[in-house]
Every structure is written in C-alpha cells, then in structure tokens.
Amino acid sequence: MKNQIIAMILAGGQGTRLGLLTKHIAKPAVPFGGKYRIIDFALSNCANSNINNVGVVTQYQPLELNEHIGNGASWGLNTRDGGATILQPYSSSDGEKWFKGTANAIFQNISYIDSKNPEYVLVLSGDHIYKMDYSAILDYHKQKESSLTVGVIPVPIEEASRFGIMNTDQGGRIIEFEEKPKEPQSNLASMGIYIFNWSILRRYLVEDAAKDRELEDFGKNVIPTYLENGEPCYAYSFEGYWKDVGTISSLWEANMEVLDLNHPLYQSEASWRIYSHTPVSPPQVITEHAAVYDSFITDGCYVAGEIHHSILSQNVKVGLDSYVKDSVIMANATIGASCTIEYAIIGEKATVADGALVVGTKDNIAVVGFGDKVGGPKNDGEE
Fold it and tell me: Where alpha-D-glucose 1-phosphate is bound, by residue (predicted)?
C-alpha cells in the first residue's frame, strides 16, 4: 500500500560546536529543558502531524540515541502500520559505508524508503527546537505542485549571512539559493526542513550515483541542481518559534528562554505536546536547607543548596550550601557541597566536587563535559 508521506530525521551529527557535551553522544541526543532530548521535538512534531513512519538516520555515537528512541512507543509511533526505525551506516556491495552528507544519507537508505512506498518524503534535522504542523507544509507543497518545498523562517537581515538563504519570486517560488551569503538578497533562512516528491528525488540520486558525481548534500548540491534543471521549488514561510541549538551559547539561551512560562512553546501545550522517553525516577527532594527560585526541578533531584533561574534535569544532586544560578544541570550530574555554579552547563553524569567553582558569563558560558569531573582529588594518571 502506498503511503502518502514518511519522515526521515537526520540525527547523525557530531555537534562539534557543542564541544565537551557531545564527546560521547550525538547532538540530537543532548538533553534539553530538564526532561527532553533535542530530537524529541522533531519526533513529537511527526507524531502530532499524524506521520507515523519515521526513519531516524544515525551515525556518530548512536547508542544513547538508539536507546532513547527504541521503536517510537514514547511518541505513539509504534502502530501496526508505522513505527520509528533506526537507520545506521553499513557496508554495501558498492563500498558505501559512512554517510557523506545529508543527501547521501537518504541515498544510502533508498531500500528503506522504497519499502514504505511513499509519495512524499519529509526530511528533517534532528537538532532544532520548535513546534510545527508538517501537514500544513505538505498541503502547501501539493497546492504549489512543487517538486521540492523548503521550510524557511524570516531572520533579521543582519543575521542572514549565517544561514542558507532562499531568494523567491512573489509567488514563493525559489529562484536562487545562497549558502551563507556575504550580502543576502532576502531574509528567508532554510530551517533544514524539506518535502520532496520521492519519485523525482529518487531518480536524481540514482542517476547521479551512476555517474559517480554524488549529490552529497541538500543545501550545497541538490537544491542548486533542482533549480538549474527548472524543477518547481517553493519556500514555505514559518513564523513560529524555531531555534538552532548548535552552539553552547544558543543551547544555554534556549534553555533559559523556556523558563519563561509565557514562552511560545507552551502556547499549544494541550494540543501539541512534546513527548519523550523518560526513565522512572523517585520524587524530588528539597531539603529544609534548600531555596529554589524561578527554576525547573525534575524528578529524582536532591537539592540542599540555593537554586536561581536554572534547570535541573533528572536525578541531579546539589549539596549543602551550594549556589546555582543561570545554569543548566543535565541528568545524573552531582554537585557537591559549597559549590558555586553560574552561567554554566553541567553535562550528563558530570561531577563538581565540594567547594569547586564553575563560573562563566552570559557571553562565555562555562561547560563541564559529559562524565567529566571538576575539583577534588585527582585520580592516578591525571595531570
């Protein structure tokens, strides 16, 4: 039976700009907002948009991501005719192994896509924070009789040079694509959201591979090729909240923003929930010595210190007389007694020993990496 649409979430990014936080996990698996991981937003958008066939393309450090997603049950994707499927690189008869780019990742998974027999393929990045009804962009794609529709978001023109920019005519048809232009002609930035007619994209990828030219990346190769060949390509303008959390500063900023209970992500909470695979933890413990102000404290936390405008993920421990302000403490981190944490991100399973200071500034966020230790006696062999 032919499916109308399936989604392919590209979740194999190393996230080098997140540095120590992605030393052992892929960027889409990085925790966010106290109880989520970044990829939860793309998965939840699929579920809420009634797209229940989802392929998740992984590559770098996939273990945490694989365990988190499972078969998609936490997002209600494990239906009889749907589900979430983890797609990892493998050696094939023609020597392909590692994904060389976004388009190459789709090419190497042609057999999976063909097995779902879709009319349209929705390609998503797994590392953005937003809520979006994908059925709206699909309706737009059909209305325009487009071969490719790109989700775009208006950005301040002075920031447009940081993005891939779509220049369009009055009807929304893309007439030019510029990758991080020095002098942008418009402010329509690509969101990394694409809808393709599968039969057309498949033909391009297969024919290109036969010529050994390789269309490796959607932004650098596929979109320009579509435009050169006169394929009808349109921009779908999205005006809601969208955040690329690919840097330490943007990740910290996005977490601080969701502490505002009037944040746009909460406006449709009843009808457009963000789901996650959340381990069962005991209730939080706030001791008589603790003080908590304007913060999120998640299940399993033990707090004996003072917390201001911060997010504590699951099973975080904060010792007596410690002070945490304007910071993100990720799951299973331990902060000892008499510590000071300000303008910081403390990674998963990290330890801040008694009396240690981790202090950054709003313009230079301090980071303790996944599983790292700050302060206290050093182990044998440490310098």
Answer: 164, 179-180, 190
Residue 349 is labelled as binding a ligand: no
Annotated binding residue 93: no
Could you tell me which residues come within 8 angstroms of residue 63 by beta carbon, excluding any fewer than 6 positions away?
A: none
Yes or no: say if 20 and 368 are a contact pair by the CB < 8 Å rule. yes
Average pLDDT over residues 88-97: 58
Task: Output 361 or 25, whichever has higher pLDDT.
Answer: 361
* Both structure tokens of 45: 């958008």
CA-CA distance, 208 to 128, in Å (whole number)? 30
- Alpha carbon of residue 51 to chain centroid: 18
Under 8 Å between Cβ of 87 and 55: yes
pTM for the structure as a whole: 0.91
- The fraction of the chain above a pLDDT of 70, given in percent, is 92
| Ramachandran bin of 281, using left for φ above 0, alpha for ψ from -120 to 50, beta for the remaining angles | beta
**8 Å CB contact between 15 and 30:** yes
According to the annotation, is 111 in a ligand binding site?
no
